[in-house]
Amino acid sequence: MDQMEAERNNRDPEMVYPYRIDQNCIPHCDVFTENGYTKEEMKLTRETKKILGDDAVLVSATAVRVPVLGGHSESVNIEFETKVTAEEVREVLRFARGINVEDEPSSNTYPMPYYTRGKNEVYVGRIREDFSHDKAVNLWIVADNLRKGAATNAVQIARYCLENNLLKA
Fold first, then answer.
1. Sheet containing strand 99-101, strands side by side
2. Which of 15, 39, 66 finishes a domain?
3. For residues 42 and 108, what is the distance between their CA atoms, to the nearest angstrom?
4. CB 138 within 8 A of CB 130
């Protein structure tokens, strides 16, 4: 953020990235590994498998630095075992705790990092069936990474467990 702000204000920035970040997108988050992916991209793969408790889940990611003050945005393609419609995915997500569905492309309603700043929820939109694969759905997911992350997740999981008598206080 300091580098971006310095660039925007025509000051000499302390370079965190090897390139200008303001008004740019850099497909490089963390260091590259031997397989051509970055450590951040590999972390996405490992964390998804861990969260879902399924090592068979296949994940391939390209992490990109985009000049916003805070926020993670992901274009996600999910392949299911059977055909699932976009409407079925919307309905499940509408009732999921901590998720807000913003999905009305006809009125330009979809999540963007600028509007999720300071919020703990995860926002999902652009939910659509993948026309190239009959058992896949595409989603656009956005969250404020300064608010929604491991610490917030841990607190939310603990609250859920306490509210449902899964742990003793």
1. 72-79, 136-143, 122-129, 99-101
2. 66
3. 32
4. yes
pLDDT surpassing 70 at residue 128:
yes
40 and 95 in a single domain? The answer is no
The one-letter amino acid code at 75 reads S
- Name which of 72, 49, 77 is nearest 61 in CA terms: 77
Range of 39-43, 99-103, 155-159 with top mean pLDDT = 99-103
- In angstroms, how far is CA 10 from the centroid of its own chain? 31
Torsion of CA 107, 77, 86, 88, to 10 degrees: -130
**CA distances to 3, 16, 147 from 42, in Å:** 25, 21, 22
Structural domain of 87: 68-169
Among candidate residues 94, 78, 86, the one with its CA nearest the CA of residue 128: 86
pTM summary value: 0.76
Q: What does the pLDDT look like over 39-71, one tens digit per residue?
A: 999 998 898 888 888 998 888 888 888 888 778
Cα distance between residue 81 and residue 112, in whole Å: 30
Helix extents (H) in 9-96: 39-52, 86-94
Distance CA 137, CA 133 (A): 8
Please, which contacts does 102-107 make with residues 24 or more away whose CB atoms are closer than 8 Å?
Answer: 103/127
